[in-house]
């Protein structure tokens, strides 16, 4: 009796403490990133960045409509959602090994030969090869599957975040190219008017053949730009259709360059650098690291004995009609212990693989943190830079248009050559095109800022 109680106590101690002593307790993470943001944060009121959903961040109602459509119909996001469902099912399969599987079984056995034919009918309810998880092997495998499920859930959030950013960038690009097309068309119309006047003056001897050829050069250059931007607008429309998962209504498309797409211009004051740890790609890498850690515990547990229990209770009879009569009860109990003695280095190699996978996952986790910090630092650095560029570009457009107006007046008065007017026209046209490109870069950086901070966790109406 005392021996039985001692054995029971030892099993309880192993069951309670065996798991924790085999799985590594902690893994040191050293991402080697600065403790502060490399740029000065905004003086705007402090808000929780992870609580700003895309509906609150992207203020244009047309863009919100397109993002909504993409989230409902995009196939890549649908695959990410299905991967989550798959990982959840795999975790439930693995978790089921932690509890006994009870099954009912009926069997008929007929034997014969030189002896008379004999029949045996059995029906039983029992457990087949249930492993007593003394050293945490099954529990660690279940934990690894759970962390894999969490990683897939984070990947789904990452796919959604990337989709929102891609749709916003594609939408902004379409608007910018439409604006570039409008500028090219307006310039083409102005140059065509100038060409008609120059042709008339050339016929009257008031303009040289060189001046006529230079004017035609302006016309053909603008015509080339119109054709190029028409193709780009068509490509932008196709890209947006693919991201949205179907045709986008014309009313939801931008009719020109968008000057203010985001409600938050920079990181508000008081936002800690730890917000990067909430990025879905970083969280996915963290869960994969935890899964690899759990797999080490399972690999270590394989070095220890395993006990499997098989037992059943039921009834057996020579006749089917008497299967459940009194006096036909049978039971069986078959414990099995397996002690690894010689495996040819298989178990040690398995542990080496688990350790290597953990080290790989650790390096990937640290890299995810470093990449997140670099992306956020880049977006912050470009914030002020692009604001300055936009201000300078707007001043350049104003000066170039004024110079073109004055040059036209001086040319009409015979004070300047046509070459001076030609240069002023080209400069003004180029300045307007560069202004649109700078506006697009500034708005795209706002989209990047939303993405690199991990987006929002909470959405209105979702």
TrEMBL record:
Gene3D superfamilies: Outer membrane efflux proteins (OEP). It is found in: Cell outer membrane. It comes from Stenotrophomonas oahuensis. The keyword Lipoprotein applies. Keywords: Lipoprotein, Membrane, Palmitate, Signal, Transmembrane, Transmembrane beta strand. The keyword Calcium does not apply. Residues 1-22 form the signal peptide. This is Efflux transporter outer membrane subunit. It is a lipid-anchor. Pfam families: OEP (PF02321). PANTHER family: CATION EFFLUX SYSTEM PROTEIN CUSC, OUTER MEMBRANE CATION EFFLUX PROTEIN. Belongs to the outer membrane factor (OMF) (TC 1.B.17) family. Its main location: membrane. It comes from the Bacteria.
């Amino acid at each position: 009796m005392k021996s039985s109680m001692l054995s029971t106590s030892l099993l309880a101690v192993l069951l309670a403490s065996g798991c924790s002593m085999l799985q590594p307790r902690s893994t040191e993470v050293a991402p080697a990133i600065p403790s502060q943001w490399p740029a000065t944060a905004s003086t705007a009121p402090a808000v929780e960045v992870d609580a700003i959903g895309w509906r609150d961040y992207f203020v244009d109602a047309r863009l919100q409509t397109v993002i909504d459509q993409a989230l409902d119909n995009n196939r890549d996001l649908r695959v990410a959602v299905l991967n989550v469902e798959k990982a959840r099912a795999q975790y439930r399969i693995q978790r089921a090994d932690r509890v006994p599987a009870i099954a009912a079984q009926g069997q008929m056995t007929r034997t014969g030969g030189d002896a008379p034919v004999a029949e045996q009918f059995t029906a039983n309810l029992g457990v087949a090869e249930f492993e007593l998880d003394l050293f945490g092997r099954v529990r660690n495998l279940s934990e690894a599957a759970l962390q894999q499920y969490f990683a897939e859930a984070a990947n789904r959030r990452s796919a959604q975040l990337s989709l929102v950013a891609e749709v916003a960038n594609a939408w902004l690009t379409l608007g910018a190219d439409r604006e570039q097309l409008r500028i090219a068309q307006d310039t083409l119309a102005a140059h065509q008017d100038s060409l008609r006047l120059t042709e008339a003056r050339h016929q009257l001897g008031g303009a040289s053949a060189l001046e006529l050829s230079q004017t035609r050069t302006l016309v053909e250059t603008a015509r080339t730009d119109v054709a190029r931007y028409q193709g780009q607008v068509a490509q932008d429309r196709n890209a947006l259709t693919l991201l949205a998962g179907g045709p986008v209504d014309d009313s939801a498309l931008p009719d020109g360059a968008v000057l203010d797409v985001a409600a938050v211009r920079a990181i508000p004051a008081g936002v800690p650098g730890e917000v990067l740890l909430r990025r879905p790609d970083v969280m996915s890498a963290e869960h994969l690291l935890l899964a690899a850690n759990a797999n080490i515990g399972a690999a270590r547990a394989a070095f220890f004995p395993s006990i499997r229990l098989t037992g059943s209770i039921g009834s057996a009879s020579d006749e089917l009609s008497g299967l459940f009569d009194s006096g036909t009860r049978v039971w069986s109990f078959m414990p099995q212990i397996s002690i690894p003695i010689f495996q040819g280095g298989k178990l040690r190699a398995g542990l080496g693989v688990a350790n290597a996978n953990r080290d790989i996952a650790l390096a990937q986790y640290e890299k995810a943190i470093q990449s997140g910090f670099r992306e956020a630092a880049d977006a912050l650095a470009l914030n002020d830079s692009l604001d300055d560029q936009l201000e300078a570009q707007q001043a350049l457009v104003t000066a170039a248009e004024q110079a073109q107006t004055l040059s036209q007046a001086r040319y009409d008065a015979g004070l300047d050559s046509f070459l001076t007017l030609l240069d002023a026209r080209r400069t003004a046209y180029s300045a307007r095109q560069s202004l649109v490109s700078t506006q697009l870069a500034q708005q795209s950086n706002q989209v990047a800022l939303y993405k690199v901070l991990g987006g929002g966790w909470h959405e209105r109406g979702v």
